[in-house]
């Protein structure tokens, strides 16, 4: 089985081809690879400026395949992997229906949670002005499904940590950036414990002692 080198490039880059093939050969040399290799370039469109390809045309013809996202915008009957990429480029008015269809197609797969995680991440980046609740409703996800995704957990934990920080500011005064960073690194379980403990805090020292006790 060949090694697959995958590179996604959405912006113009006059040095892209040279850099990509240089990195491939550095890897092959550094790790003394004895297997064949193939490449997959995920690109925005055929009009994308990626620099001179003349020295690399043999590679591009025989070993490297290009996937243009613009071709996926109107494609139908796609595999789940390509349907996931299609979410990036289709019209926003079609995104909710496409996301719901994709969720249904992978619902019975062993890695369903990972699929949800990827779908939610794409929707979150494509619709940055929507709340988590609004994004959740778009693909028709059940709350219990979404709660297991990394996207949901990261957003939930971030919101929870911000709430704890506001409570601390009110209770013991404004905390510095270093302490904020430590709080934001806490897990949901630790944030829950801190939320209960801060009710007894009298000053910054109490918070620092609590964090030290947990080796933070």
From TrEMBL:
InterPro entries attached to this UniProt entry: DUF2887 (IPR022573), DUF4351 (IPR025587)
The protein, known as: DUF2887 domain-containing protein
Protein source organism: Pseudocalidococcus azoricus BACA0444
Domain named DUF4351: residues: 156-211
Pfam entry (one): DUF4351
């Amino acid at each position: 089985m060949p090694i697959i080198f995958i590179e996604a490039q959405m912006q113009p880059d006059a040095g892209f081809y040279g850099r990509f093939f240089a990195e491939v050969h550095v890897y092959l040399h550094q790790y003394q690879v004895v297997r064949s290799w193939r490449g997959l370039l995920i690109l925005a469109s055929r009009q994308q400026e990626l620099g001179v390809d003349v020295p690399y045309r043999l590679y591009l013809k025989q070993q490297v395949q290009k996937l243009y996202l613009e071709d996926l915008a109107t494609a139908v009957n796609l595999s789940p992997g390509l349907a996931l990429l299609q979410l990036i480029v289709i019209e926003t008015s079609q995104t909710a229906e496409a996301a719901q269809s994709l969720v249904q197609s992978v619902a019975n797969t062993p890695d369903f949670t990972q699929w949800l995680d990827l779908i939610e991440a794409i929707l979150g980046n494509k619709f940055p002005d929507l709340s988590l609740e609004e994004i959740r409703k778009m693909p028709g996800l059940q709350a219990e499904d979404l709660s297991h995704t990394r996207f949901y957990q990261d957003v939930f934990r971030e919101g929870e940590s911000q709430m704890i920080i506001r409570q601390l500011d009110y209770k013991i005064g404004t905390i510095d950036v270093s302490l904020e960073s430590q709080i934001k690194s806490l897990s949901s379980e630790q944030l829950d414990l801190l939320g209960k403990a801060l009710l007894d805090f009298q000053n910054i020292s109490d918070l620092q002692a609590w964090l030290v006790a947990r080796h933070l």
